[in-house]
Amino acid sequence: MGRRLSTVDIRGTLFEVDAFREALIEKGNPKNRIPFQVFDQEGNGYRFLYDLQNKNVPQKKSVVMEDPDRYCWVIIEALMELDPEGIAMRYDIPFEVLCGNKIVSPKALVAQTKPLAIKDKKVKESAHKK
After folding, report:
1. Best exposed site among 26, 72, 95, 97 by fewest CB in 10 Å?
2. CB-based contacts of 16, cutoff 8 Å, min separation 6
3. pLDDT digits over 8-60, tens only?
4. 69-127 pLDDT per residue, tens
5. Are 104 and 86 in contact (CB under 8 A)?
């Protein structure tokens, strides 16, 4: 039996947090992975742009501009909070050194999401000309 992983619900889609594999992996569709490399620092956690239709990150910036309502920002906790065992395995650090004697249980979280706000340059430019 594999490790029990924390889960993050992103707008109704459940992803497992796997720090060892460095990805959020959709539960029930393991081919759908969001790599940690797309994450940006956000406070004590991370954020990334999420495609609500494809349930992943956008492939190109240009597609985001074509239909911004299809995307949102997702904010999640620090990976150390979500999968300390995976961090320990990934970086070959004894779990006891990383977490001490505390017992760590998988969490079930709902990701915070924020709408994508895109300012239309053309509207701004025309307003300044008047």
Report:
1. 97
2. 5, 6, 7, 24, 25, 26, 27
3. 999 999 999 999 999 999 999 999 999 999 999 999 999 999 999 999 999 88
4. 999 999 999 998 899 999 999 999 998 888 888 788 889 999 999 998 776 544 434 34
5. no
Instruction: Please compute Rg for the chain using Cα positions.
Output: 18
Give the separation between CA 109 and CA 76, rounded to whole angstroms.
9
AA identity, residue 65 = M
Two structure tokens written together for 9: 């619900």
Taking CA atoms, 118 is separated from 71, 79, 88, 100, 124, in Å, by: 11, 28, 39, 44, 12
Alpha carbons 64 and 59: distance in angstroms, whole number: 9
